Amino acid sequence: MNESCPDEITPHTMKSKEIEFACVSIAVSFLVASLLLDIFYVFVLKVILSCREWRRKSFYQFIVFIGIFDCIQLTFHFLTGIMHLVFHFNSYIQNYSYYVVKAMGAVHIASWFPNSVATLLLAVDRFIAFVYPWLSPILFSKLLIKLHFLAMIVLFGFICAIMLSPYASFIYDPENFGWDCQQCKPLCKIFSRFDQLSTAICALLTFVIYLLIARRAFQLRGASSISRMSPHEVRLTVQMIVMIIFQLFIVAFWEFDMDVTKQKDMYANAISMTLWMLWNGCNPFIYLLFNKALRKKFVAHCRSLRSILGERIEKISQTDCKINEVFRNSAISSSRKVIFVSQLNNA
């Protein structure tokens, strides 16, 4: 073992009661919020996949692909909350969980890159579909979309392999409530900088592409309805612009937090982790806000789910009533038998 870079997690030290309470509160908040966001996101994806017409469109295919990796990261935010509570109440476990945390960190950070690339490809798809519609069936055919997805899955596996190797580690620090690369590993400094640059570049390029789409739509506002962007397309474009502006804000915060403050503080890390969780969890809310068709299907699914749950609850209550009736009848018959036997004995 390399003494300057030990394969262990920084031990959790006892702090004041106020800070200890803050640590537990943050962990529980993360656990609950990430679980609720994950469940809600999965339900929205189920609504999208329920429509056969949407499943055929490249836009919704990218939305679902992004959503899968968002849900993976939300699941790991949930596990982070559990892990922090485990480390908080049982620090003995920390020395034996390094490789489990290393594997979690590898999947956690690796799922970030396909997400960013898919968001950029979605912007390119929107741009080509609106500005060069004749190119869209060629560049985003069924086969090429599958190849795009396959390439991003390979990227996911490649990043996982790097982070699982002895040369890089993405480790959770229970002392400061945050994930970070182990800077003592030879590839971590390079990878950390690559992570910052790639995220910023993808977000900026995506934003520029959507601005070009908006500019083109503004130029064609007085044109015929054939060449003009439909109201549905306008809403989809506004939806993605809002999402990208929010992501740019988070990227700017991370750059300031990492390059300017350069502090490892529990509260700063908690804010950074919260923004990361919101990056993954805000998308379905934005989709529902700007997509009228999706919103209608979502409401219909909620009503259907409520009716199904109501029917099941009613069946359960009816079953309970029947069971209670059987027990009551059996109790009455038993009491009658007792009375009859006592009368015979008296006779």
Describe what this molecule looks like in 3D.
78% of the residues lie in helices and 2% in strands. The chain has 347 residues and is mainly α. It folds into two domains: 17-221 and 228-290, Rhodopsin 7-helix transmembrane proteins (Rhopdopsin 7-helix transmembrane proteins, Up-down Bundle); 293-341. A two-stranded antiparallel sheet has the order 1-2. The protein is globular and about 95 Å long. It starts with 16 loop residues before the first helix and ends with a helix. The mean pLDDT is 78.
Any key phrases for this structure?
347 residues; mainly alpha; Rhopdopsin 7-helix transmembrane proteins; two-stranded antiparallel sheet; 12 helices
Low-confidence stretches: none
Fourth-level CATH superfamily of the largest domain: Rhodopsin 7-helix transmembrane proteins
Q: What is the CA-CA span between the terminal residues?
A: 92 Å
- CATH topology-level fold name of the largest domain: Rhopdopsin 7-helix transmembrane proteins
In round numbers, the mean pLDDT is 78
* Count of separate structural domains: 2
**Radius of gyration, taken over Cα atoms and rounded to an integer in Å:** 27 Å
Do you know the CATH architecture of the largest domain? Up-down Bundle
Structural class: mainly alpha
Q: What is the overall number of helices?
A: 12
3D shape: globular
CATH class of the largest domain: Mainly Alpha
Largest sheet: 2 strands, antiparallel
Strand order of the largest sheet: 1-2
> How many strands appear in the DSSP assignment?
2
Amount of beta strand: under 5%
Order of helices and strands: HHHHHHHEEHHHHH
Helix content: over 70%
